[in-house]
Amino acid sequence: MTSDERDRKTTERARLRAARRSAPAAPMSAEGLAAVEAFGVVPGGTVCAYWAVGSEPGSRAMLDALSAFRVLLPVVAGDGPLDWAVYAPDALRAGPYGLLEPSGPLLGVSAVASAAVVLVPALAVDHAGVRLGKGGGYYDRTLAAATGALVAVVRDEEFVEVLPAEPHDVRMDAVVTPGRGVVRLPL
């Protein structure tokens, strides 16, 4: 990636974060279930999801809508890939970055490979499946081990034509937005 491309990525992140700060919440409760159903996950199957923070798309209602599935949430463990634990609404603890994390037993980094679908937070995703995250690299370090479908969860305006990409960026298999539903990628 060239210096100009890195600068573009930084500029895009700043623009998208500013837009989110002024945007209303995006609870997106049914969209997570639609994404799981689009990939044919059967009840009892494993789905990785995330706890939405601030105006990030997603919600506790999105997690609760997945109650027929075994839902794993990420647990931040240092600077490495994300660890995972089973979501239980009454067993959450405060984690870094404003996250709520499961307080149950940790399943290890490799637990992401057991998921049929991974719902992935993103600032934006493009038509080729390039995902722009917050810049910490946690998901890029983790998603390389995933074997299920990777589905970015964003607002309609955050599904864009093209984003800058680096070789380590893991491509998404689909995106889900409130207005467009599930869109398989690349277009």
TrEMBL record:
Against InterPro entries, the record matches this protein to: FTHF_cligase, FTHF_cligase-like_sf, NagB/RpiA_transferase-like
Please give the Gene3D superfamilies that the UniProt record associates with this protein: NagB/RpiA/CoA transferase-like
Q: Which family does it belong to?
A: Belongs to the 5-formyltetrahydrofolate cyclo-ligase family.
Reaction catalysis annotation:
(6S)-5-formyl-5,6,7,8-tetrahydrofolate + ATP = (6R)-5,10-methenyltetrahydrofolate + ADP + phosphate
Q: What is this protein called?
A: 5-formyltetrahydrofolate cyclo-ligase
Q: Show the ranges annotated as biased composition (Basic and acidic residues).
A: 1-15
What keywords would UniProt list here?
ATP-binding, Ligase, Magnesium, Metal-binding, Nucleotide-binding
Residue ranges, annotated region (Disordered)? 1-23
| Pfam annotation, one family | 5-FTHF_cyc-lig
> What is the E.C. number?
6.3.3.2
Single annotated GO MF: ATP binding
Which domain of life, per UniProt? Bacteria
